[in-house]
């Protein structure tokens, strides 16, 4: 659950939990709390969310964890909360699909989850062999 001030900063966005705490059963409790945040596809809305996150002590981590993602999402972190922020509905749909596959298969191994996300988000089958 997000704190009230973070929820307020993300007002108008669709916010849903994701990551290993959602996909693994039993969920690990020693990992970040991840959330997919879908911002309305509007420059002002995106700017307002970025300003709100910065004013709530979130730091931008970029999108270096994922291939070719710079135009599709931003990753923001504060303590153990990681926000995957996007205004791209197609990216959000693919992210939800990858999350659902990992959850259905109960993928406990992080490298397996990464391979699924790489394949679903970017069509990258090279990670399947990793």
Question: Explain this structure to me?
Answer:
The protein is α+β, with helices and mostly antiparallel strands and 130 residues long. The protein has helices at residues 4-9, 20-23, 43-55, 89-105, 110-122, and strands at 14-18, 33-38, 59-62, 74-78, 81-86. A five-stranded mixed β-sheet has the order 1-2-5-4-3, sandwiched between helices. Helix 4 runs antiparallel to helix 5. It is globular. 27% of the residues are buried.
Summary tags:
alpha+beta; five-stranded mixed beta sheet; 20% strand; single chain; 5 strands; 130 residues
Compact description:
By secondary structure, this protein is an alpha+beta fold. The protein contains 5 helices and 5 strands; from the N terminus they run αβαβαβββαα.
Strand order of the largest sheet: 1-2-5-4-3
Provide a count of the helices. 5
Order of helices and strands: HEHEHEEEHH
Report the mean per-residue pLDDT as an integer: 88
Structural class: alpha+beta
Proportion in β-strands: 15-25%
Label the overall shape: globular
- How far the N terminus sits from the C terminus, by CA atoms, comes to 33 Å
* DSSP strand tally: 5
Question: What is the C-alpha radius of gyration, as a whole number of Å?
Answer: 14 Å
Question: Helix share of residues?
Answer: 40-55%
The main β sheet shows up as: 5 strands, mixed
The residue ranges in which pLDDT falls below 50 over 5 or more consecutive positions are: 64-69
